[in-house]
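Write out the 3D structure for:
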Amino acid sequence: MSERRVTTKEEMLADIERAWSHLNGALDRLTEEQMTTRQDAQGWTIKDHIVHMAAWERSVVFFLQGKPRHEGLGVDEAVYLEGTEDEINAAIQQQRQGLSLAEALNQLREVHEQLLKLLQPMTDADLLRPYRHYLPEEPGEGEGPPAINLVYGNTADHFAEHQGWIEEVAAEAS
C-alpha cells in the first residue's frame, strides 16, 4: 500500500471516489473469461481480487459499527488475531471460491455502498478517533491508528493496489 494518508473526511472521500471510479473502469473493460480464468503469480483470478477487496472493505464496515473485524472478513477470530496477512487472505479466498463473478461484483458494490452510508454522518473528529475507540475489546497494544487510516487503507489505497494487479492479469490474458 502507498504511504499517502489523508487527514480530512473530504479529502478521504474524494480519493475513495477517484480510486473506485478507476477500479470500476478497469473492471468494466474486462470479459468474464479474463476475470475468472486467468491467474496472477499467486494463483489469484481477478474475481479473487474482487472478493478480497470486498472482504476487507466489509471488515471496515464492521469496525465502524463496533463489531469484530474478523466477522466482517468471514474468518475465525484465531486466524485474524494470530495468522499472517497471507493466511487471512487465503482463508478469505478459500471460503468464497464458490461465488460466481456476478455475486463477487455485487458483494463489492453492496459493501462499498454500505461503507459510504456509514461515512456520511461522520465528522473529521469521528474519523480521527483511534482504533480502540471503535473496538475497545479487541486485543492489542495501545490505542491504534486513527480510523481514517483504516478506512483509507481498505478503500482508496486498496483499490489502487489491486487495480494494478488486475490490469497485469488482464494484460497477460490479451
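The two ends are 27 Å apart (CA to CA).
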